[in-house]
């Protein structure tokens, strides 16, 4: 049995119901809109965040319709943010496939993203729980704020891990935080359980982003991006920050600043990637990632049933051991 099967075993029926709800929500009577939505549906991944919503709901109570609508609301918001991000970043690939803006154009992408955001809010309202509507709205704010912080960071003279973690908490971890939290809220879990669930999701989300950042230091055609692509876009992630601060030379700091300003050549970035590997940047990032794994597992209640403990442990392991 593969990891995905182990993860989804406790929610097989509910996951199928969710997929049907997801497919039906990505339809329109307008031919162009329906075509773009069908393209997005075709590219959709393993539904890791909706799966987390449903597992946390079952961990703390009885999964219900509000759980499914909350999961759909968050997945719609997430997908819309990716469509918009590709426009902002001028990306023509998303996980090795052509992005929506590459297949159609920026105008269509922005409008379809807006349509999905509205659909997200409708499904949050279908839960009948104002706490979940508020959660989705706050998540939208956090995702946008994370992007703005990252843009502002291009002029930052410091190489702070604190700023890095602040960005990924808002850009990536916020989605996992909201997924775990909404699952608990949807089954009317206690305030303490909801807080624990949110922290659990945050730990997973941070580990997920660190893993994504590590990918950038290795060639992988499936991901659709070359080595060092983050730095080509002016982004310095955890492995790079560690090595810059470890070496601390004026030369390495100057290179870091030029990377942020998009002034470094591809040859300089390639040499810097090799330096980061030699100086332990990848090893450091992996240690931090596994530390977040342990923090997440420690948050599971002692009373957790074995099937849910197995599923959630496997979920975390999948996040940090995946190949793409």
TrEMBL record:
<dbReference type="InterPro" id="IPR008949">
    <property type="entry name" value="Isoprenoid_synthase_dom_sf"/>
</dbReference>
<dbReference type="GO" id="GO:0046872">
    <property type="term" value="F:metal ion binding"/>
</dbReference>
<keyword id="KW-0460">Magnesium</keyword>
<dbReference type="InterPro" id="IPR033749">
    <property type="entry name" value="Polyprenyl_synt_CS"/>
</dbReference>
<dbReference type="Pfam" id="PF00348">
    <property type="entry name" value="polyprenyl_synt"/>
</dbReference>
<dbReference type="GO" id="GO:0008299">
    <property type="term" value="P:isoprenoid biosynthetic process"/>
</dbReference>
<comment type="similarity">
    <text>Belongs to the FPP/GGPP synthase family.</text>
</comment>
<dbReference type="GO" id="GO:0004659">
    <property type="term" value="F:prenyltransferase activity"/>
</dbReference>
<dbReference type="InterPro" id="IPR000092">
    <property type="entry name" value="Polyprenyl_synt"/>
</dbReference>
<keyword id="KW-0479">Metal-binding</keyword>
<protein>
    <submittedName>
        <fullName>Polyprenyl synthetase family protein</fullName>
    </submittedName>
</protein>
<keyword id="KW-0808">Transferase</keyword>
């Amino acid at each position: 049995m593969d990891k995905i099967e182990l993860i989804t075993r406790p929610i097989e029926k509910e996951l199928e119901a969710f997929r049907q709800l997801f497919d039906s929500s990505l339809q329109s009577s307008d031919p162009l809109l329906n075509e773009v939505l069908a393209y997005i549906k075709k590219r959709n991944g393993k539904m890791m965040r909706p799966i987390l919503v449903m597992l946390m709901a079952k961990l703390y109570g009885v999964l219900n319709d509000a759980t499914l609508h909350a999961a759909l609301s968050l997945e719609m918001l997430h997908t819309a943010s990716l469509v918009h991000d590709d426009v902002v970043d001028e990306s023509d690939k998303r996980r090795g496939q052509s992005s929506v803006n590459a297949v159609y154009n920026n105008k269509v992408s922005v409008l379809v993203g807006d349509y999905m955001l509205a659909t997200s809010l409708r499904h949050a309202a279908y839960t009948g729980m104002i706490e979940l509507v508020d959660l989705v709205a706050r998540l939208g704010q956090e995702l946008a704020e994370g992007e703005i912080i990252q843009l502002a960071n291009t002029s930052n003279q410091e190489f702070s891990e604190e700023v890095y973690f602040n960005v990924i908490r808002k850009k990536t971890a916020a989605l996992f935080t909201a997924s775990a939290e909404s699952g608990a809220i949807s089954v009317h879990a206690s305030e303490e359980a909801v807080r624990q669930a949110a922290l659990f999701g945050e730990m997973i989300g941070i580990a997920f982003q660190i893993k994504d950042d590590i990918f950038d230091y290795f060639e992988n055609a499936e991901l659709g991006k070359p080595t060092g692509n983050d730095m080509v876009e002016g982004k310095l992630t955890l492995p790079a920050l560690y090595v810059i601060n470890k070496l601390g030379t004026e030369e390495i700091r100057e290179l870091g600043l030029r990377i942020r300003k998009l002034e470094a050549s591809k040859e300089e970035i390639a040499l810097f990637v090799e330096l980061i590997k030699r100086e332990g940047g990848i090893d450091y990032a992996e240690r931090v990632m596994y530390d977040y794994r342990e923090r997440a597992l420690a948050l599971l209640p002692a009373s957790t049933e074995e099937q849910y403990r197995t599923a959630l442990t496997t979920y975390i392991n999948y996040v940090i051991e995946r190949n793409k």
